[in-house]
Amino acid sequence: MNAAKIVDLFSSELRAINLGLESFAQTLIQEGAKAVQVDWRPPAGGDAKAIAALDALAAGTTVDIEKANDEAIRRIQSAKPTVIGIGTAIDVVPGMARDLILHAGPPITWERMCGPMRGAVIGGILYEGLAKTPEEAQALAASGKIRFDPCHHHDAVGPMAGIMTASMPVWIIENKTFGNRAYCTLNEGLGKVLRYGANSAEVIDKLRWMRDELAPILADALALHGPLDMKSIIAQVLQMGDEGHNRNRAGTSLIIRELAPHMVLLDRPKEQLSKVLAFLNGNDHFFLNLTMPSAKCTVDAAAGIEGSTIITTMARNGTDFGIKLSGLPGRWFTGPAGIVDGLYLPGYGPEHAARDIGDSVITETSGIGGFAMAAAPAIVKFVGGSPKDAINVTLRMYEITSAENDAYQIPVLDFRGTPTGIDVRKVVETGILPAINTGIAHKDPGVGMVGAGLVKPPENAFRDALVAFAEKYAK
User: Fold this and answer.
1) Which of 29, 349, 356, 384 is at a distance of 20 to 30 A from 154, taking alpha carbons?
2) Does the global pTM surpass 0.90?
3) Does the domain formed by 80-294 have CATH 3.90.1710.10?
4) CA–CA distance from 316 to each of 106, 126, 138 (Å)?
5) Rounded Cα–Cα distance for residues 445 and 194 (Å)
6) Residue 165 contacts residue 147 (beta carbons within 8 Å)
7) CA-to-CA distance for 375 and 295, rounded, in angstroms?
8) 3-state secondary structure at position 447
9) Which one-letter DSSP state was computed for residue 267?
């Protein structure tokens, strides 16, 4: 460059395009220059193996990925999750047994379980009458005489610790389009509850009341009512300010409206019916244990499609976060469960928090929950941020998904369908991780919920899944 051009360069108005640290652009603007900040990052965060996998898939594959993903999306969109009844786990959950305890998240052993999950396992053993004291229950859990398995391996899901035992009542949800089913226990409400690791006498007494009175009354009312179309109900709650994961006030209200007229016709003591209605009315999260299996049987229909990069499972056990891909059925890809960033109840902070836990992220996997936060601006009072933040979270999720849901729509986005069908390629390439809003459990068993917020899943789980996919399908 000659001297004249150098003079022209430094005498003309400076206009900069900044890549990387935003502070560089801000400094230029403060000095009177014009600067545009570009939110850019290297593909796959610069990870060489993940970049090589992306390049290999772009160069050619043994299957048509786009066609496979279209089929996965078709199955998700055409799913019809429907509540058909309530049963006992041992009678309806595939593979359930007396010596088996199901838990949330990917596989884990007793030795690696976090505090809340260990506490919930102890509570489950006490509930089943397999031990008389917490000490006996803990010894039994560690003895090898009790088997542990993920809920997801048995067509089931569970919130937080996700503990399911043989005699627990469970919702039965059937995907009427494809015939597959999913199961989930009934929600206990807040306070001292099993899913947060509590196992005191009052917790066990409530579980037995749920088994002996709540479940039979709900089952009889549902029999009079007939099946509940969950797809229609979830679509309605998104129009009413819920997002289907952490805000369930509208959904619980709709379930009460559906079942209450039939409940009062039952030949049961009025005191029992009143107690059940009061329990439902006082438990905003009751609907969560219906959205979770509805989401489960929806995305399960898309599992096992050769060549599909759609994520069909995300789950966490308080130690590990894991995902599964449609085109790699049966394989878990895991990383460390994160710490939730959010709002804490008075007296608690991050130092009290357990790591991310629960199967409830199946809601995000299906296109609601954190992916539908724009439909529930009031959720920010629960998880932190502003209504604008809730909208921005949903908008970012369109960048890592393959479709917009044709049933679940968001009013504030001109009734745009929720982001649906997470494509692992897009997650890795963009570095945008699935948005998950969730409750925060205390790290010690039995304390309960200490807050709520947003959590980032581990990037390595998605990168490892992509690399394994490329190893199988790249030419």
Assistant:
1) 356
2) yes
3) yes
4) 6, 24, 22
5) 9
6) no
7) 17
8) coil
9) S
pLDDT in tens, the chain (475 residues): 566 666 565 566 767 787 666 676 677 777 677 777 766 667 788 889 999 999 999 999 999 999 999 999 999 999 999 999 999 999 999 999 999 999 999 999 999 999 999 999 999 999 999 999 999 999 999 999 999 999 999 999 999 999 999 999 999 999 999 999 999 999 999 888 999 999 999 999 999 999 999 999 999 999 999 999 999 999 999 999 999 999 999 999 999 999 999 999 999 999 999 999 999 999 999 999 999 999 999 999 999 999 999 999 999 999 999 999 999 999 999 999 998 988 999 999 999 999 999 999 999 999 999 999 999 998 888 788 889 999 999 999 999 999 999 999 999 999 999 999 999 999 999 999 999 998 898 998 878 888 888 999 999 999 999 999 999 999 9
Tokens, residue 190: 């807040």
Neighbours of 188 (CB within 10 A): 23
- What is the 8-class DSSP label of residue 423? B
Q: Which amino acid is at 134?
A: P
Domain segments of the chain as ranges: 3-40, 49-75+298-473, 80-294
The C-alpha atoms of residue 103 and residue 110 are separated, in whole angstroms, by: 11
Cα distance between residue 230 and residue 219, in whole Å = 16
**Residue 308: strand, helix, or coil:** coil
Domain 49-75+298-473 has CATH 3.40.50.720: no
> Any idea which residue has 């305890």 for tokens?
101
